[in-house]
Predict the structure.
Amino acid sequence: MTATYPPAEPIWCAGCGHFGVQGSLVRALDTLAIERHQVMVLAGIGCSGTIQSNLGTYGYHALHGRVLPTATGMHLADPDLTVIATGGDGDGYAIGMGHLVHAFRRNPSFTYIVMNNGTYGLTKGQPSPTSEAGGIAGPALDAVTLGLSLAGSTFVARGFVRWSDQLDRLTVAALEHSRAGRGFAFLEVLSPCVIYNDTYPAWEASLRDVDDDPDHDPSDRSGAFRTASELSAAGRMAVGLIYQAPARAAAAFTGAPRPAAELVDPRRHEGAYRELVDRYRV
Amino acid sequence: MKVETRRSITDLNVMVAGQGGDGSLTVVKLLGILLARRGLHMYIARNIPSRTRGGHAAALLRGSIVPRQCVGDRIDLLVAFDGEAIEKAGERVSPEGVVLYDTSAGPAPGACLPDSATVIAIPFARLAVRDHRRDLFKNSLVFGVLTRILGVDDDEARDVLRELFLRLPAEAIEANARVLEAGFALADDHDLAAGAGPWLLDRVEREDRILISGNEAIGLGFLAAGGRFYAGYPITPATEILSFLASHLPRFGGVAIQAEDELAAINMAIGAALRNPRAMTASSGPGISLMQEGVSQAGSAEIPLVIVDCQRAGPSTGMPTKPEQSDLNMLVHGGNGDFPRIVLAPGDPPDCFQLAVTAVNLSQQLQGPVYIALDQAVAQDSCTVEPFDMGSVAVTEGRRLSPAEVAARPEYRRYLVTDDGISPWALPGTPGGMSLVTGNERNDWGHVSSDPRNRAIMVDKRMRKVECFHDDLPAGRQWGDRDAVVGLIGIGMELGVMQEASERLADAGLAVSCLQPRTLWPVPGETIEFVRRRERIYVVEHNAEGQLAHLLASVGAPHDRLRGILRYDGLPFLPSELADRVIRAEEARS
């Protein structure tokens, strides 16, 4: 056996929600029997941007806000690799927001777990786009409603670290969705920062679990959008599997070449190359 | 038009100018096919405004017996679809030149042309609409008159027209063919009889050639070198690389993707490169500015990546369609922090092909960023060159570890400190090769670390990497009188102009030695040596600061020998202008 890097101890504060996210992720990999060498965990910048060092998988520490394009490139290179992008709300919803919209739209088959704590913890408590009013001007950004509003989205879920059984189920469902090639699995996890934004009690009181609601149909996009946006307008949040497109609806990049599988032997394509050069003959 | 003696044409410069959307490129394409059939070398330049349609636009085509890589001094034939075309280009029309002027929008402006030039005024657009119901047919009318001036047989002109429109529906071909006949009739009206034009376009035998732009040559080189992932964002003048690879990469088992911005483009390429495919992105100044964080990341995290900069006039949005070489400082020094990088600079399409291959290979060996610096002229101008031979392409892998090699090791550390700084690399997906890749400072396992001792070791390890390639970096091109005390140095678009200007200088009795460096960073010893061996070096650059000269001086070229010949008005040098600048500078000394 080749010895590889020893997984790091988490740097997070006692009580940080991110422990719960990591726990669910590790359990999901075990539940789905995914070998660690088949997994690439990408992380952004911030407290959450250290999770990739703790798992024993392949890990990549992306530039601030760029975890989604990096994961997109990696997925396109090798659709067989289990790609898990992670990051915080500052990384994903502030500096990286432009990429989130396009990830929903393109629907590449990887999982994106956002650890939302409504603050910039690592730089000591500045407000983030999901801070309640009083932080950055305007109401908190609701990425779930945003995702549902984009026609390309295929999997939109939200979990809460304190509801760990549900978070385990959602993490497994997200990985199954993306690993089956059904597209971009977006999972926001409410993961409070006990130092700068301890929202455990406030968030818990505001949540509505749609998984428990027999009238909620996760395959109905407009119903899901109505539920999520009405809750959002009332200062509450939906949690659970909010929307998952029916299996047949998703076909992200299917049939695209798999360049990572290519041995670098340009001679294999010499015929195509000659034909291409011939087009320029005069 | 009166014909006294028929003049043999061995170097023909044609400008077709008018409002963008006039279809001026159609006339250029027709002429291109004609010149190719005659075996002439071609150079085609575009000088277009940054608008989809409208605005003054010109295309230039040069056909010559001797290969030329730039626009010639004089315009022999000007096709002017409006008065502005004459106002802008009139002073460059040769005294023996011919101007075909479209009078549809009014009479030709006076006093812009040499008195001895011939003006043939015909309302091409009006006739095209009146007799043929489409404005665009004026191109075929013009071509009929043009071929008569060039002494081209009518049947040859007919064949050329059919060749261009080969893929159009039959009725469109026939319609254009009828318009061409009308063009011949117009020529008859102006005393330009078949087979009796004033000029005789030369015909030569030549080797097999392709007509290709620098951007397309970059795309071909990338494919030939096994490049398999491209991400880009549309920007003038780099967009052709995106469209070329979007069209062709899939057939080579690769993926090309249009990103939402340049930040995404470079990070997509980084993501792909981490997993294996040889990856590239391209842009121009504004986009390359956005990409700086990604270049620094590739340098820090040790990820192979090729970045093409098709430079345009800056700063900021600058002049999108005009060439400049003012990004050199950014390419050599940009991105935060210290990291190793290589910057290559092609001067023509064959260089673009070869240096794209070299850049892909070097990026793998370096495990870091390699730039290819073009300028708008090298990127978008086309010329005839020998077809690029894929047989000459060698692919080097860099220090990869196969799954078997990983399995045979007791341990695998991604950032293992080695003598040459290059750490053997296992691809994600390899059992036992699990690694942490990060742009943060880290220890050899990839764990983030700010330990001072480790920091110094890691910085040194990275900076050491580029030293192993010093001797393998692409050499420059040197020509002229090796013993001359006067030297010229220029990159990119200056190559072709310097070649022609050095001939003029030699004719004028000033011997010069010329160098086109093809590696800009690290600065090769030969470049410094070239400066040291001469008394005066004219550094020909398209920027205001003399960035190349500063770069050379910063690594030990004697700065008192370097003199800038600078231009930053968006136009390339003409050979005579460059020769004059050198002669004037030399005269000013005495």
Chain B touches chain A through 83 residues (CB under 8 Å). The domain at 211-390 of chain B is CATH 3.40.50.970 (Rossmann fold).
